[in-house]
Amino acid sequence: MISVSISISDLNSDVMNKKSILALGLSMIMLCPGGCGKASGSSSEDTDAAVIVEHITAAEKESEETAVYKFRNASAEEEKKMWERQYAGEWIYGVGGANGENEFALFLGKVIARFGRNDSLSSDWENMYSYPIIAENEKGEELLIEIYHGAGGPSYSLPTDFKDDEEKEKYEQAAKALVEYIQSAEPADYELETVYEDIPVNVKYSVKNGAAKVESEFPEDFEDYGMEDFDPDDF
To answer: Does a structural domain hold residue 133?
Structure first.
C-alpha cells in the first residue's frame, strides 16, 4: 500500500562510524607523532596509539572484505542472456522494513547515483525501473543481478536454476554486496511521477540535496473503484 510518511532515517550510520574511527585515529597520530603519554609500567610504545592503529587495521580489513566486487551496468547483450535463465525477485526492505515511501524514493536516488539514469524509468509505480547489473567477484566471475522496483517496492532478482549450492551462494553474496553498495551512496537529485494503478493514486517521488519527498494524490470518489470503505489517511 502507499504511505505518505516523510520522516527519513539515517541509512549511513555504520559508514559514518567507520569514517569517524579512521579520522580520529589519523588526527591523533598526526598530533602525537612521538606518543601522547604512556601507561604506567608500559614499554616505550604508546599504548593509546597502538589501540588506534588496531582500530584502523580492523576498519581497513572490513573495507577490503566489502570491496571484493566490481559493479557496472550490464550491456544489452548481457541483459538478453539474463532472460535465458529463470530469475525470481526478493524485496530489499521486506514488509514493514522501510521508513515508508521515503525510503523507496531515497533508494532510487542512490541507484541513479551509482549507475545513472536508464531507459527503464517508468510512470508505472509497480514497474518503476529495472537495472541489470554485473557484479564481478575477486575471481573475475561475472554475475548478473537485477535491481528493480516491483509491486513490493525496491527488489533484487537472482537466478533460481542454480547448478549447485556453490553458485547459489555466489549470487546471494554478490546481491548482498550490491545492495550495500547502493545503500551507502549519497542519493542523486531527481523527480519521477508515477501511478499506482490498483487504488489508483498518483505518486510523485523526488530527492533534492539528500532529502526525499513523496507526494500522493488520491481520487475523490473511491466508490467508482469498488472501494467505498477506503480511507486515504490509512496510507
So the answer is: yes
